[in-house]
Amino acid sequence: MLAGFVGAGKVGFSLGKFMTENGIQVTGYYSRHRESAEEAAIFTGSQAYYELEELVSESDAVFLTVPDEAISSTYEQLKTFDIRDKYICHCSGALSASETFPDAAARGALGYSIHPLTPVSDKHSSYRELADSLFCIEGDPERIDVWFDLLSGICKGVKIIDSTCKSRYHAAASIASNLYCALMSMSVGLLEDCGFSQNEALDALSPLVLANASAILRYGPVKALTGPIERGDADTVRRHIDCLEGNPGKALYLEAAEMVLHEAEIKNPQRDYHAMHEVLIRSRSEV
């Protein structure tokens, strides 16, 4: 398999380096910015291409590692060349192969989305984290097993999903990573109101956050659940809500509390949560 990259940003750097470190030959990089292609080529021991058609011709698989909004327009350029028997791939977690490469099959090509479920934050070091990540793939069923077999041997795992699931899949990833930052920001802000500096707040919360994340990953969110909602301590939750009056995070607390209460009822089906429901219903009516 010879893989070429269109786009030389963080994902292109990282995936290309990961491939070369694991026995997959990278032909090289094409970019609108020549210096970026040259830097990526040096980093991966490959070639910088100055003509897109040449990269396509010399690669079995062409990865469009460009921003999501540029994938379709980049493909429009790509398909003016001979792409028969080529694997055309992108690394978007949100977009499916069918919506970005709608006529790939008619042109004799095979379209895939290949997404590593991990943040790619640094173009020079993030490749080291890909071996411990799950890769989610979807696309043309004809040869999807090629990518499944190729990636299975070099990463934590591979999951094939249907194209109709891409939005749900990406929402799941965003909730677990990006949206979680909102909860942490709210928590840190409340400690800052108590006189903590941001660094002090983060340091104080660290054992709690890490232990909770470990329990969730080990046992699942329902079994790992603890705290006043799980215990049915309605008075404490009411105090939480009262102290959030005027705080923009109050609505977020109430939404999350409703979901936590649902999980608590699954965990403890014999426990009486009537008072907790009353507190949350009354508080939501006041928002």
Task: Write out key terms for the chains shown.
13 helices, 287 residues, N-(1-d-carboxylethyl)-l-norvaline Dehydrogenase, domain 2, Rossmann fold, eight-stranded mixed β-sheet, alpha/beta
Description:
31% of the residues are buried. By secondary structure, this protein is of the alpha/beta class. It contains 13 helices and eight strands. It is elongated and about 70 Å long. It folds into two domains: 2-161, NAD(P)-binding Rossmann-like Domain (Rossmann fold, 3-Layer(aba) Sandwich); 169-286, N-(1-d-carboxylethyl)-l-norvaline Dehydrogenase, domain 2, CATH 1.10.1040. The N and C termini lie far apart (57 Å). It has an eight-stranded mixed β-sheet, sandwiched between helices. The mean pLDDT is 95. Helix 7 (166-193) packs antiparallel against helix 8, helix 11 (234-243) packs parallel to helix 13 and helix 12 (250-267) runs antiparallel to helix 13. Strand 7, helix 6 (144-152) and strand 8 form a beta-alpha-beta unit.
